[in-house]
Specification:
By secondary structure, the chain is an alpha+beta fold. Helix content is 24%, strand content 32%. It binds zinc ion.
Length: 187
């Protein structure tokens, strides 16, 4: 079958796609994702982009990491995150790297599709700059938050207005780290 002809629903069926959680498929969630070969493997990134967008809509995720989505096509998660831009659109970033992480830590209130029915407070920096590649192999840099943003001990609930935590949350996933590993449980 021509893979390009598959609808996203057929891809989900074909690749056995489902949410990877620490309850089910913890080996997927906790595995360090591998780099994507930008010359040979962009087709993987493009397929995963479609699947992650589908799952984001289905489960109302604010961001998605490859480690959240089990699929049988790659043996381990590949380094790709689907994150909001400051214009509230979504973009897949391939082989992302944190270039800057600055400011005084705040208390972000976070949930996670891979850690069901739990909410954690995670201390994170208020400013992050990342680099990576689009699925068209274009190098990009994206920055979020402000290094001067400090809320003291107050919990921060907002998502779209404070996307810096989302970026750090998804970057952690690529290293096999969840909010269960670095946060304090609220529920
Ligand atoms: Zn998560």
């Amino acid at each position: 079958m021509d893979k390009d002809a598959l609808t996203v629903h057929e891809m989900v069926e074909t690749y056995g796609v489902r949410i990877a959680t620490i309850v089910d498929r913890d080996g997927w969630v906790k595995t360090k994702a591998r780099e994507i070969d930008l010359d040979e493997e962009l087709h993987l990134a493009k397929d995963l982009d479609r699947i992650m967008r589908h799952m984001k809509e289905l489960y109302k995720f604010v961001g998605v990491s490859s480690n959240n989505i089990y699929w049988s096509l790659t043996q381990v998660p590949i380094r790709q995150i689907l994150i909001p831009t400051t214009e509230r659109k979504y973009i897949s970033v391939i082989n992302p790297e944190i270039l800057k992480l600055e400011g005084q830590e705040n208390n972000y209130v976070e949930a996670c599709g891979s850690v069901p029915n739990k909410v954690y407070i995670v201390r994170r920096k208020p400013y992050v700059l990342i680099s990576g590649y689009t699925i068209e192999k274009e190098r990009i840099e994206l920055e979020y938050g402000s290094k001067d943003f400090y809320a003291g001990e107050d919990p921060i609930y907002s998502s779209y207005s404070n996307p810096e935590w989302v970026i750090q949350h998804e970057m952690d996933h690529l290293d096999g780290i969840t909010i269960q590993d670095k946060g304090a449980a609220l529920i």
